[in-house]
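Example 3.
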Amino acid sequence: MANSLCYGEQGGADSGVEVGQETPTAGGAGFGLFSTDFKRRGTFSLWTGLLSGPADLQGRVRRHKSARAATKRCLSRLDRGRAQTCLAKRASLTPLDSSDTVCASCAVAKPAGFCTRRAAGEMSRSLSGLRSDALGVMRTARVSAENLQLALRSDLSLEERALNDPRSYRGPEETRNEGNEDLKEMLESSKESLKLEAMKRVVGLIAKGKNASELFPAVVKNVANKNLELKKLVYVYLVRYAEEQQDLALLSISTFQRALKDPNQLIRASALRVLSSIRVPIIVPIMMLAIKEAASDLSPYVRKTAAHAIQKLYSLDADQKDHLIEVIEKLLKDKSTLVAGSVVMAFEEVCPDRIDLIHRNYRKLCNLLMDVEEWGQVVIISMLTRYARTQFISPWKEDGVFENSEKAFYESDEEKRKSAEETKPYAMDPDHRLLLRSTKPLLQSRNTAVVMSVAQLYWHLAPKHEVNIITKSLVRLLRSHREVQYIVLQNIATMSIQRKGMFEPFMKSFYVRSTDATHIKTLKLEILTNLANEANISTVLREFQTYVKSQDKAFAAATIQAIGRCATNISEITDTCLNGLVLLLSNRDETVVAESVVVIRKLLQTQPSEHSDIIKHMAKLFDNITVPMARASILWLIGEYCEHVPKIAPDVLRKMAKTFHNEEDIVKLQTVSLAAKLYLTNSKQTKLLTQYILNLGKYDQNYDIRDRTRFIRQLIVPSERGGALSKYARRILLAPKPAPVLQSAFKDRDRFQLGTLSHTLNSKATGYLELSDWPPMAPDQSVRNVEVAEAMKEWSPAVGKAKSSKSDDKFYSDSGEEEEEEDEQAADSGSDEESSSEASSSEAESGNSETSEDSSQSEKSSDSGTGVKKTTTQKNKKLQQVKKPRKVSDSDEGPKNGHSCEAGSRSGSGSGSSEESSSEASESDSQSSSDSDSGTEQKKQSEAKPAQKVEEKPKKEVSLLDLDDFSPAAVTMTKSSILSPSVLSDLHGLSLAASSPAIQLLCLIGHVFSWQGKLVSVCDRVCVCQQLSSPVFVPVRTYELLHRMTGKGLAAQYHFSRQPCIYDDRMISVQLTFSNNGDHTLENIHISEKTSAGQNIHCFSPVECLEPEKSVTVSVGVDFNDSTQAASFQLCTKAEGFNVSIQPAVGELLLPVTMSEQDFSKEQGKLQGMNESSATIAMTPESIASQPLHRKVVNMANVGVVPSGQNNVHRFAAKLVSSGALVLVCVVQKDSGAQLTVNTEKTIIGSMLLRELQTVLSAP
Amino acid sequence: PTAVKMIHSLFLVNATGDIFLEKHWKSAVSRSVCDYFFEAQERATEPENVPPVIPTPHHYLISVFRHRIFFVAVIQSEVPPLFVIEFLHRVVDTFQDYFGVCTEAAIKDNVVVVYELLEEMLDNGFPLATESNILKELIKPPTILRTVVNTITGSTNVGEQLPTGQLSVVPWRRTGVKYTNNEAYFDVVEEIDAIIDKSGSTVTAEIQGVIDACVKLTGMPDLTLSFMNPRLLDDVSFHPCVRFKRWEAERILSFIPPDGNFRLLSYHVSSQNLVAIPVYVKHNITFREGSSQGRFDLTLGPKQTMGKVVESVLVSSRLPRVVLNANLSPSQGTYTFDPVTKLLTWDVGKINPQKLPSLKGSMSLQAGASKPDENPTINIQFKIPQMAVSGLKVNRLDMYGEKYKPFKGIKYMTMAGKFQVRT
C-alpha cells in the first residue's frame, strides 16, 4: 500500500507482491490511527517488523527524492505525534478558528522537522526501507486526520512547501510547462474571474494531453470555491491528477464529505461522483461509507450516482466486493427507472455470477424496461439474456410442438406438470414470455444499440418462429452511420448462415454500392452469399457479375470466392458458375484470374470427372496466366486429374520443364508434384521429363524445392536402399484428396453472443461472459415470485382439482376465481379499518415527491401497512378454511420482517394486487392440502435465503402471468351480451401497451371484473386495470341538447349516466331523453351526420315514432378522446335535422376506479413532476359545513373514493375513459383551506379538473 | 484485476493523424495506444475504410469518423460495440448542436465546454446525460453575448440545479420554456436509395424518411400528429417522446416534444412498394482499346416528379485510374476533375425539362494502358422541394395542454440518398 502511494511513479512487477503483504497492516492502520499516539507507534513498529529488507525497494526509495522528503516529514510528525494530536483535537473542537490552529501547528512542525531531517538523513543510509513504510503511515495518519475533519489542510501544504523544492517534487523527467508560473499566480489570486480563466487554461492543457500536474497544490485549494463552474473545472482536474498526487488529493476529501450532505441533489451527486473518481486507495473506507449513504438517498439521481460509484470503488479495491454486493442488492430493489440501468451495470461488473440477486427483481426489471433510459436498456437487456438462458428451458427443442403453444397455455395444471416431467409439449415459462414481450417495443428505439440488444435477445431466447420480427429493425439500422452498418452487418452475417429465410426478403438491402467502405462491401457480399438459394441465385449472380468488374480488385476477388461458395452450395448452378469463372480466366487483372483459378480448382475437386474439358481449357490458358498461385493451382489440377487429361498433361509438363528455372517457388513445387504423378501414371511418356525436372530441382536455390525433389525421387524411383516406401508411392501421391469446404468466415461466430465485442472480433474479449446453454430441466420458477405480505384470497384445493379436469373447465373456473378475487378486493377496499401506520405512510408519500421515492422509510411503513390490511382482509372474508391459521401467523410475521431490506424487497417489486395474488397462487398450490403453517414457514425461509430453493417448492406455479397469456380467451369467457367488440383487439395490443410497466401486472387480473353486480368485461387498454367501482350515487344533472322551440316540438336532454359504456370501453355513455312537446307524432328520430372530427359516436337505434307528450330515453356512446371538445352531430327526425352538440364536463370523462390507499400512493408516486398539478384552496366555514367534501368532489367528477385512514385526507381515483390514464385526486384538509392535488398523465385534463374542483370546493 | 467496462478514454484524431484532444474517465491511458489506430489509418486507403473496431494487446479501440475527425474510444473489456458507437455519434451530435459545426477548430475553441460536456455525458465510462435538453440546462451553449456577459459579471455557464428533466417522466424536455412566438415546424424529408443499372432499370430502390421537427412552444404542449396514409410507413423508429402504444393502436403520433430541434421519427417505406425514380441519366462512356481518348457523354432528365422541380443536382463519379484528364463541356453548371483522386464532380443546379443538362467531351487516357473493365458508377444528389415521394401526407397537427395558438408548418422534401447509376 505504501508503495502504491509513491506518487504514481513506481509500478514494477515487484510492487504487487509488496502491496499484497502490506495491505492488511495498512488497512489496520487506516482505521486504527484515528486518535492515539500509542496506536501510531504500534503500527509503526508493525511496519518495521514487516520489513524484509528488499534491496530493490530500498533502492527505489533512495531514487525518489520526493519519497525521501516525505519520510522526513513523516518522521517528524511521528516524533511529535502527541502534540499534533492534541492540536488536532483542539482544532476539531473549535473548527471556527482554524487559522490559529494552523499557525500553532506550523510552529511546532518546523523545528521538529529540522531535527528529524538530520536524523532521517542518517537513517537513510541504513534503513531507507523503513522510510517508505513510515511514509505510508504518515499518509494514513493524515487521512485519519482528514476523517476527523481536522483543519490540517493548510498546515500540510505549508509543510509541503517548506520541505520540498517544487522542482524536484515531480522528478526530473517532468518538464515544467512554460507559463505555468503565471497560471499558478492566477489561481492563487483573489479574483474569481482570474481563477476561472486560469482553470479554463488548465483544462485546455489537460485536453491537449500536456502535463499540468505541478499546479495541483494551487488548483486543489479552489475545490471549495463557490463558483460552480470553477468548482466543476477543479473537479475535472482532480479526477485527472488525483491518482498521481494522492496525498495532495486527500486535502480535498473533506470538502466532498461536506458536499455529500448538501441539500441540493446535484451537488450531492457530483460530490459523490468526484469522490469516487479520485482513485486513491486510502480513501476506500470513506468511499464505501459515502456509497452506502447515497444508496439510500432520497433523490434517485443521487442513488444512480451511487450505483456508478460502486463500479469505481470495485475497480479500485476488489476486496470491497462483499460490501458492494450488499449495496447492489439494495439498489436492485430500487423502483426508480433512473437507477435501474446503472445498478444493473454495477451488477454486471461486480458480481455477474450472482444470478440469485436478480430473481426477485426480474419481473420488475422487465416491466420497467420501457421507461429506463436507453443506455440502461442495453445493459439490462444483455443481463436478462444471460439470466434467461440459465433460468428457462429451451423453446427450440420441439419447435413443431411449440407452434401450438397457445393451446398449451390453456392446458390444465395436471397436464402441465406432466409435461414438465416428460419434457413435452413445451410450454413457455410466463416469465420467459414476459421478457420477450417487454423488450419487443424497443425494436422501435432510435438508439441502434438498443435495437441490436433486443435483436440478440430474440435470437438467443425466442422460439425460432418468432425471431423474424427483428429482421426489419435490423435492416433499418443499415441506413445508419457506417460504423453502425459494420456491426449490424456482421451480426446479420452470422444470423443469415443459420436462418436464410429471415433476411431473404430484404436481399436487395445488401446490394453493394460503389461508395461503400471496403469492410462494408465484404460483409454485404458475405450476406448475399449466405442468402443465395435456388430461387434467387440468378439475381444474386447477376449482381455478382457487376461486382467482379469492380475497380476495387480486392473486392472483385472476394466476389469470385463468393461465386465459388454459391456454386458449391447450390448444385444446380455449379456448371454455370464454373463456366462463368472460366471466362474470367481471360480477364486482364491478375488478381481476378488468380482467384478464379483457385476457386475453380476447389470446385473441380468436388466433381472432377465431369469437368475434364474445363481442365483442358485451363491447360490451354496456362501460357497466358502469370500469377504464380494460379499457375500452381492449374498444375496441381492437371497432376491430380492427369487420368482425365492423358494427352495434355505430359505436354504441360514438357512446357514446364522449359520454363522451370524462371518459375516462382510455389510453381516449381507443383511442377515437381506433377512430374511425380505423371511418372506414376504415364511413365512411358514422361520418364525423361521427370528425371530432367528432378535434376533441375535438385540444384535449386530454394531448399524446400531441393528437399521435395529428393523426397520425390526416393519415392518414385526405387533404389537399393530405402525402397520400402516406393511400394506405396502411388497410394501416397495419388490418394483421393478431400474437397476443400468453401464456407463462410462467419460459420462459427455464433459461439459468441451476438452484438458483443467478442462477436465482432471473433475472439474472446476480456471480460466476456459466456452465454450458458439452456438448462435441461426448468429451474425453480417460484424464485422470481415476490412475496407480498398481503393476503387477498386463497385458491381453495377444490378449485385446484376442478381445474385439472379439462382445459375449458379450467378456463371458466379460472375466471370464477377472478371474480371472487375482485369481490374481495372490493370488500377489502371498502373496509373501514385502517391503521395509523398506513395513514402515515401514505401521507409521507403524497407529501413530496422525494419522500415517495425514498426506499427505506416509506417502504417500511407501507409494508407494515399491508400487514395490517391483510389482517383486515382476513376478517372480512369468511370464505376459505385455510385462512384462520394464516391470520395468526401473519400478524406474528409483522415485526420479524421489520428490517428495511426485507420490506424493500417486498413492496419494491410488488406491484399491487397482481403480485400479491401471484405469490398467493403459488403458495396455495403448494399447500393445497397441508395446513397454512407450513406455508408461512416456507415463506420465512425463502425470505431469509432468497437464493435457496425452498423445500416445499410448488410443483407448478399458477402464476398470474399465465393469465396474461390467457387474455384473449379470457374475453370470450365473459361472453355477456354486452361484450364490446373492440375488447378483443385491444387485448392483443395489451402486452405492448404498458407504458407504466409496474401497472402492467395489474392489468393481468384486471381483464375481468364485476361491476354493479353484473358481469361486465371492460378491458383497460392502457393497462390501468384497477377495479372499476360503482359510481357513487349523485343527483343527475341534465343538460339541454335541443330546445323544444328550435326542435319544433322535439326536445332533447342529455345526462351522463356515469356508467361504463356498453358499446366500447373507450366511450362515455350518455343518456338522451327525447320528449315530444309538439302535437303530432315524430317519426324516425336518429343521428344522421357526425360533424365533429375525431370523435366517435355510437348512435342509438332510431326511435321509430314518438307520440306527442311522450318521452323516450336512449343511450349513445361517445368517445371524446379525453378532451372536453363538444361532440356535434345532427339529430334528425323524418322531416327535419337539427345540429346539436354534447358538451362533456371534464368530470364526466372519467370512470371511477377502486384502489387501496397504498396503490393510490404508489400510482401517485409515478405521476409526479409535470403530471402533478396542485393548488391551495381557501375554504370558508360555510363551504366546509355545507356538504361533506368528498360529496362535492364526487358530484363534480365521476371519481371513486379511496378509503382513507385520516379524516382530513380525501383521495379519489378514476381513469380517463378513452385513454385509460389514471387520474388521482387528493385533498388534504387544513384548518382554513385545503391542499388539492391532481395527478394524471394527461396534463390538460389534470389542470382542468383542478380548476373545476377548486371552484366546487371553495363554493359555499 | 478487474476489467473496467465501457468507455475508458476518448481521443480525437484529425485526418492528418494528430491527437488534438484527449479525455479520460478513469485513469489516464497513454496516447501511445493510438499508434495501433494510426497503423490502421495508414493501411486504409480512405479514412472511411478504417475498421471501426481495432483490437490492441490491452485495449480495444472503437472509432467513428465524422466531419473529418476520428473519435476514438478506448475500451478495456467486453462491451456491445454499438453501445460505444452510438454514444460517440451522440457526442458528435451534441457538439454540432452546441457549436453549430463540429470541426477541429470549433472543438479547440470551445475546449472547456467540450470538457464540461464530456464530463456530464459519461460517468465512469457509462452514459449519464445524453439528452440535449438536459445537457443544455447543465451547461449552457456558448453564445457571443453570454461569453461577454460572463466575463463582465463572472457568472457561469453551468447550471446549479439538477435539470428537472433528469427526474421527470419527460426527461427530454426542459421545463419553464417560454417563447413569444410559438411555432412548430415539421420537415418530412424522404431520401431515395437506389441502384439503377446500365439499361436504366431499377435494381433496387427504397425510401427512407425522417420527420425532423423544430418546436419552439411555451410550457408543456402535448402534440398529436396524424397522417392521411399512415399505412405507408413500414418500419419506424421514434424519438423517446412518442407514445408507442398510441401509435400501435391508432397510428397517431402523440408526444410532448423536446424543446428545439429533434428527430421525431424515422421510417422506411417498404421495398415492396414501387418507388418513383425522379431522374434519369442517359450515359455513353466509352474507352476504346488502344486509343488514348475516351468519350464521355452524360445527359440528365426529370422523370416522375409530379411537376416539381428537381434542384441542387450534383453528379459525381470516380473515373477509372487510366483516365489522366477530362476535357468536358457542360451545358449548364460547372464541373471539376481531380486528376489525383480521379473524382469528377458536376454541379448541375436545376433541371430544366425543356433544356436538359448535359456534360460532354473526351477523356485522355494513360498511353498503353489497357481499357478498364468497368465503367464508372455515377452518384447523383438532388432535391425536390414540396414533395414526399412516398406520397406520405400529414393530416393534422393538434396541440393540447396549452392555451395559445401556435404557428404550425409542415414542409416536404425529397432527396437523393445513396442514388447510384451503374454505367
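Chain A has a mean pLDDT of 68. The first helix of chain A runs from residue 14 to 32.
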